[in-house]
Design a protein that fits this description.
Blueprint (H helix, E strand, L loop, with lengths): L1 H17 L10 E11 L4 E3 L5 H18 L11 E7 L10 E6 L2 E6 L2 H14 L8 E10 L7 E2 L10 H13 L4 E2 L1
Parallel strand pairs: 2-3, 3-5, 7-8
Antiparallel strand pairs: 1-6, 4-5, 4-6
Helix pairs in contact: 2-3
Length: 184
Amino acid sequence: MKRFLSILTVFASVSLFAQPLAIIPQPAQVRVAEGSFTLNQGGGLMFDASKPELQNIAVQLNDHLKQFYGFTLPVNEKGKEAISFKLIKSLPGTDESYLLKVDSKGIVISAKNAAGIFYGVQSLKQILPVSQNGPLTVPYAEIIDQPRFAWHGLHLDVGRHNFPVSIIKKYIDYIAMNKLNTFK
């Protein structure tokens, strides 16, 4: 029995060190550095204001920050850059790929289009602390991700089971939160 517990402890400790950030699904590449960026009301949210889809993503992120951490970030105020969305057409990968970089300068989410920015924001939400017992810190990291498959989604059979609209909307929110791109 002692031998079994020893082996179990070794496997548990190895799995703890193998996953530096808890992100679902597991990103293609994750590099974690020492240190963390403090996200607070003094920072801002920067993006190309001519893109309405980026505006929607910014509103959703601010709603999340307000609901779970009690503050929102000012949008597109010069000199207050904490989180930036950058559309870069030359990035490698698919339309849903993204690069999330957290360092001492702030948080930058880069992608080819708004879908990649959206999935980068979902990863950012996952690495934020669950509760705010002090400053809201995000570990320094670089995450490069893209879907492994073109189609990844879930199905909901509403023909046999009746669901209220509120449950279906919540289901769709969970699908999006886990970066699934198809709902049938």
